[in-house]
């Protein structure tokens, strides 16, 4: 083993794993990929693969570091001994399902847990509600060996508490994960797959077995097709390997016979393949209504049901344990077991009400965003850290910079203001605020990557700023969909902040040596022509942006007028501080609102070009005050837009905005660059982790699929729209993080 591997940390997962065709294998692969995407290579997952007698020669990837024959008790002991001796192994987690481990109820697993000395977390995929004595004591023993037990539903938690007498504090509920995909109507995927493009598609997915209850769906269909002849039912998946070994394709043959008997040959088909994740998601996207009809009321969880809800499809499900908990009337419909007539009625209700069908699907998509794999991986890591303190030293790494969503929001005129989910909303028009932000991002990204596309984008944003500039040098903010200035809206608002930001963006472009001569000269000309606009600023944030612009100009060409204006505007902020600050309120205003850190950053920036110690002292004091009021337990918590924080009043925490996080990150980076105090560098990264799920909802705000950023964090849910301000705030932060 090479040395760099010895220095890494491992989370070892005992589970089945691909290429073995098994639901637990798919789950483990999805979870490990999400975990590694966040934490590898410093901390990564490794697999101990469980093999049945029929799966002894599988071609595993190098992620699998060991194998156990499930019917060989000695393998369990030897593997636990091996893990005990490995310094890389920080924690072991077992994916538990009945049938994966030999012995009565899989009690061979005790040979492993009795020997293991590493911290252990066990995930129970199934919790049986009526145990006999042997099962009861087996579960009790496994629980004593584990630091915590993870289950996927509250129903499973309650069974452990009431039936197995497991202490509540020993149980953690983390739902089944889903893939982070964009919401799309079914017709796109149907066209891509060339799959019944003109039909209403029903589907069921999973390893085929008699427990799926598919025959009851078939019996329900004649009553549906009579009224909706355009319906087609697709049964996706190969036969379960254990079923195939024990009874061959007898269940599939039985279903095919029933299809013939019921006259459904033109309305039902099989897709007899074990699908890779990408293929599965395409088929689910092509689906209009998903059917989950297992026959076991005690089935704790169905990954296929979770995945269907996750792509935003309405579901009809039998009332098994997970379905009763997750399939509310907002998302779909529950039916009794083995009741084809109820399936018929449920399908007719949805097929006859297209608006309701679409609403259920969209609601399913919204309600399941907390279940995306990045959020689930974050939840597991949070749980692991509770029991293994050394894991706190492993931090999430910043995702690769992805400009796709920014490009999608940008047309040949500028960047569109809002989005509906991830789709640009042209009716929202454009703003100078967003285009100034976008110009800054384009310049910074070009500085790093030297891509022609960034240079072209910078010119689009710069031309927009030129378009909204009035003859007196001021910049209008709002432009409508028809690309005409929205004079009424512009006249109703104070545009100081938008003008200040625009001057800063122009200075960024004008003073960047990497930019083309055309862009630099045009930006500098516009800056000088609008320079006097700042004389009329009354907003502290507008003045702060102006200070930042002046600092850039001074570093490029230290004109006396620039130094004079910078000093006077910094002194203005000092004056505000003198008026409003007190021993317990070290701030420039009597309230903390949005982009607060910008004010401290302006003074710190002023110090960097003047060496005025007062600017540094007050910049640091106010930043430290802001840190004290926005970091709790090493988590960044922006001031909530819903109520702000008035001096002497309540500090509001929700409706947190990405813009505020971006402002804090930039200020902490500035303070670190000036002081070289590592504390500020560490806080900078902690604040960035707000985007990656280290927030009050433990939900990832950055969308790794699109490269966009969600619009805000509410008290109970994330605003899933990915508009310009939020996306640019994330990108601004990401480009500052090394």
UniProtKB/TrEMBL annotation:
InterPro entries per record: 6-hairpin_glycosidase_sf (IPR008928), Glyco_trans_1 (IPR001296), Glyco_trans_4-like_N (IPR028098)
Highest rank taxon of the organism: Bacteria
Domain called Glycosyl transferase family: residue spans: 190-365
GO biological process, any: carbohydrate metabolic process
UniProt cross-references to Gene3D superfamilies, sorted A to Z: Glycogen Phosphorylase B
Lineage: Bacteria, Candidatus Abawacaibacteriota
Molecular-function GO terms, alphabetical: glycosyltransferase activity
Domain (Glycosyltransferase subfamily 4-like N-terminal) ranges: 109-179
Family annotation (Pfam families): Glyco_transf_4, Glycos_transf_1
Name of this chain's protein: Glycosyl transferase family 1 domain-containing protein
């Amino acid at each position: 083993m090479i040395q760099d591997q010895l220095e890494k940390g491992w989370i070892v997962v005992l589970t089945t794993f691909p290429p073995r065709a098994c639901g637990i294998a798919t789950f483990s692969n999805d979870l490990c990929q999400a975990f590694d995407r966040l934490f590898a290579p410093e901390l990564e997952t490794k697999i101990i693969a469980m093999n049945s007698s029929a799966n002894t020669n599988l071609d595993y990837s190098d992620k699998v570091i060991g194998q156990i024959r499930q019917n060989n008790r000695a393998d369990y002991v030897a593997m636990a001994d091996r893990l005990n001796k490995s310094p890389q192994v920080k924690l072991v987690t077992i994916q538990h399902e009945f049938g994966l481990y030999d012995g009565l109820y899989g009690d061979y697993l005790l040979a492993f847990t009795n020997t293991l000395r590493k911290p252990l977390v066990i995930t129970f995929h199934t919790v049986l509600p009526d145990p006999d004595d042997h099962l009861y004591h087996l579960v009790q023993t496994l629980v004593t060996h584990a630091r915590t037990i993870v289950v996927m539903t509250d129903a499973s938690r309650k069974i452990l508490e009431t039936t197995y007498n497991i202490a509540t504090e020993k149980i953690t509920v983390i739902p089944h994960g889903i893939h982070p995909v964009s919401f799309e109507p079914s017709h796109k995927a149907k066209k891509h797959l060339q799959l019944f493009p003109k039909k209403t598609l029903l589907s069921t997915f999973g390893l085929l077995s008699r427990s799926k209850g598919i025959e009851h769906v078939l019996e329900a269909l004649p009553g549906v097709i009579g009224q909706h002849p355009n319906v087609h039912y697709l049964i996706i998946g190969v036969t379960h390997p254990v079923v195939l070994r024990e009874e061959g394709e007898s269940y599939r043959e039985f279903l095919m016979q029933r299809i013939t008997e019921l006259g459904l040959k033109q309305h039902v088909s099989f897709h007899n393949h074990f699908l890779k994740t990408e293929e599965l998601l395409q088929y689910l996207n092509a689906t209009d209504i998903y059917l989950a009809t297992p026959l076991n009321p005690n089935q704790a969880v169905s990954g296929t049901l979770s995945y269907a809800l996750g792509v935003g499809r309405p579901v009809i499900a039998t009332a098994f344990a997970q379905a009763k908990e997750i399939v509310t009337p907002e998302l779909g419909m529950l039916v009794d077991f083995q009741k084809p007539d109820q399936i018929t009625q449920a399908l007719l209700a949805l097929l006859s009400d297209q608006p309701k069908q679409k609403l259920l699907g969209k609601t399913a998509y919204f309600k399941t965003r907390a279940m995306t794999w990045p959020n689930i991986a974050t939840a597991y890591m949070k749980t692991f850290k509770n029991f293994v303190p050394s894991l706190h030293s492993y931090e999430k790494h910043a995702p690769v910079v992805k400009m796709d969503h920014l490009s999608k929001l940008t047309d040949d005129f500028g960047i569109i203001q809002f989005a509906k989910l991830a789709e640009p909303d042209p009716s929202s028009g454009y703003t100078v605020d967003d285009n100034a932000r976008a110009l800054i991002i384009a310049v910074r990204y070009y500085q790093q990557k030297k891509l022609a596309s960034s240079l072209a984008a910078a010119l689009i944003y710069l031309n927009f700023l030129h378009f909204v500039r009035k003859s007196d040098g001021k910049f209008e903010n709002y432009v409508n969909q028809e690309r005409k200035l929205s004079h009424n809206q512009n006249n109703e608002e104070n545009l100081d902040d938008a003008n200040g930001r625009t001057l800063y963006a122009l200075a960024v472009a004008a003073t960047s040596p990497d930019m083309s001569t055309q862009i630099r000269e045009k930006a500098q000309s516009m800056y000088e022509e609008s320079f006097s606009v700042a004389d009329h600023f009354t907003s502290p944030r507008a003045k702060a942006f102006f200070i930042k612009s002046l600092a850039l100009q001074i570093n490029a060409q230290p004109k006396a007028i620039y130094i004079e204006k910078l000093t006077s505007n910094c002194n203005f902020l000092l004056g505000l501080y003198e008026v409003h600050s007190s021993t317990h309120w070290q701030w420039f205003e009597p309230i903390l609102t949005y982009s607060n850190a910008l004010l401290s950053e302006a003074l710190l920036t002023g110090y960097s070009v003047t060496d005025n110690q007062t600017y540094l002292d007050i910049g640091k004091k106010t930043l430290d005050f802001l840190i004290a009021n926005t970091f709790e337990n090493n988590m960044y918590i922006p001031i909530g837009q819903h109520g702000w924080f008035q001096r002497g009043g309540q500090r509001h925490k929700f409706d947190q905005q990405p813009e505020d996080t971006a402002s804090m990150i930039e200020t902490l980076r500035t303070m670190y660059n000036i002081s070289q105090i590592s504390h500020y560098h560490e806080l900078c990264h902690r604040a960035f982790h707000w985007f990656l799920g280290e927030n009050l909802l433990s939900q990832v705000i950055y969308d790794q699929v699109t490269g966009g950023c969600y619009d805000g964090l509410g008290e109970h849910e994330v605003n899933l729209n990915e508009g310009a301000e939020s996306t640019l705030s994330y990108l601004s932060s990401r480009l500052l993080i090394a």
